[in-house]
Amino acid sequence: MEERINGTLDKLEIKKINSGICTGTSWFETHGPVIMSEDPSTGREIAAVQSASYDDYDLMIKGAERAFLEWRRCPAPKRAEIVRQIGLKLREYKEDLGRLISIEAGKILQEGMGEVQEMIDICDFALGQARMMNGVMLRSERPDHKMYDQYHPLGIVGIVTSFNFPMAVWAWNTMLAVTGGNVVVWKPSSRTPLTAVAVHKVISGVLSENEVPEGVFNLVVAKSSVLGDRFIEDRRIALLSITGSTRVGRHAAQLAGKRFGKVILELGGNNAALVMPSANLDLAIPSIVFGAVGTAGQRCTTTRRVIVHEAIYDKVKERLVNAYRQLESRIGNPLNENTLIGPLIDSAAVDAYKIAISNALSEGGKLAYGNSIVSGPGIETNNFVMPTIIEAQNHFRIVQEETFAPILYLIKAGSLEEAIAFNNDVPQGLSSTLFTTSLAEAEQWLAEGGSDCGMANVNLSTSGAEIGGAFGGEKDTGGGRESGSDAWKLYMRRQTVNVNYGNEMPLAQGIRFEL
Ligand code: UN1
């Protein structure tokens, strides 16, 4: 195992101590504290990053400002040609990068590689989008006037990512932003800095071969105590895309709001799966299990609540518990092929798991399965937890919260209407799903009185969204959208253009103003 890890680090050119700033192909000498990255599965130190000081960051931003002036003049399809080549490089390094995600974030290899695939997919998406970043011709009410809208780049786009998707979220934002003519500054989670360093090593060849100006693709690894608020407050950052907890997002939105900074927020979820009596349980049960325990419950799209019609409640409970039993032998090192559930990211996450379970039980919840720290052969740290099912009620304080751990609350509902009301009766509004074979129920769920979430599914998991759709959610999830559909527009400055090609001065609204 140790050899395989070292092999991956070597291939990705991860050194013992790495610089915390990259501007494309150059790496700065950085002056902030050293951040050591640890493997959550083994507790072993992987490698370190010498993080950036504020002055290092400032220098980098000055370069990004200069790069923007050049990059914005490069035609979008030419910019996307770089993105296309990045996509090819990512294909080449898919397994290595996927393995590094497993090592540093603890995700199973399948999910690590799936994450790299998301990056490849968004490269392809952005490539197509490059020739379709269209505005529309609008109808002027005035003779000899032309009116249309067009989309210009904003400038520097700041991207703050979380440990649980340490590469893909950067790619969703970056590929659209740079195709649109922006430059990006990526601040990854301090818990997963090496994946960010590795991505930059992998793409640097493409950037140098194509003579992409330094300062278009920037990476800054910095402690939040050094750069957190100052990054958000920095007027030079035209748009901030932030993925993280609702608490972090609320704080950032308030700070950015003071300077009217644009933000895309992708915050906490509290995603429910509704199960109706007509549901195909052979499909529903594995979908719920994947949603609830995938990435050890550390996705913002993780299924946290199962809201089951009372007529099938006991059956669904029994089948879920049986499925969970089969998972016991599948918890372990995420690099092993047999593993379906890796570790939580750190001991604080394990504490949050324990506290949430104890709160749920003290509020009247009933443990149906789990509630233990996993130990045994091959388990080297206390970061592995047993996926847990608790019978609960929707209004429990703990059920209303997002705990980043594999805890599933089982909730009984008397009707579809009640189940929908429960789905919506939480502060968050990211993802949701309904299992049914009734067309009427499915349409009721998708109608304006149905799910209030940014994503509403029928007969598939709450997690594992494709990049082609707009990703994000409402309420405490922050309202942002990233990735597919027309999310590219959020990275652009919309400009409405009016041209008078006549010799008269007709005023809108028929106003007469004669000298
Ligand atoms: C996240 O957890 O921050 O839909 C992103 C999914 C993934 C992305 C999750 N495609 O589960």
Describe the structure.
Helix content is 37%, strand content 21%. The protein is α/β, with parallel strands linked by helices. The strands form 6 sheets. It has a 7-stranded mixed sheet, with helices on both faces. Strands 2-9-8-7-10-11 form a 6-stranded mixed sheet, sandwiched between helices. The mean pLDDT is 97. The structure holds 2-aminohexanedioic acid. 2-aminohexanedioic acid is lined by residues 118, 164-165, 169, 243, 299-301, 463-465.
List the helices and strands and how they pair.
Blueprint: H1 2-11, E1 17-19, E2 21-22, E3 34-38, E4 45-50, H2 54-71, H3 76-92, H4 94-105, H5 109-129, E5 137-138, E6 145-153, E7 156-160, H6 168-179, E8 183-187, H7 193-209, E9 217-220, H8 224-233, E10 237-243, H9 246-258, E11 262-266, E12 271-275, H10 281-293, E13 303-309, H11 313-327, H12 347-362, E14 366-369, E15 388-391, E16 407-413, H13 416-424, E17 428-429, E18 431-435, H14 439-446, E19 455-458, E20 470-471, E21 474-475, E22 482-483, E23 492-500
Parallel strand pairs: 1-4, 7-8, 7-10, 8-9, 10-11, 12-13, 12-18, 13-16, 15-16, 18-19
Antiparallel strand pairs: 2-9, 3-4, 5-6, 6-23, 14-15, 17-21, 20-22
2-aminohexanedioic acid binds next to loops.
Task: Provide the descriptors you would attach to this structure in a database record.
515 residues; alpha/beta; Aldehyde Dehydrogenase, Chain A, domain 1; Aldehyde Dehydrogenase, Chain A, domain 2; 2 domains; 7-stranded mixed β-sheet; globular; binds 2-aminohexanedioic acid
The tally of strands reads: 23
Domain count: 2
Secondary structure class reads: alpha/beta
Please, how many helices?
A: 14
CATH architecture descriptor text of the largest domain: 3-Layer(aba) Sandwich
Which fold name fills CATH's third level, the topology of the largest domain? Answer: Aldehyde Dehydrogenase, Chain A, domain 1
Supply the CATH class of the largest domain.
Alpha Beta
Q: Which cofactors or ions or other ligands sit in this model?
A: 2-aminohexanedioic acid
Helix content: 25-40%
Roughly what is the average pLDDT, rounded to an integer?
A: 97
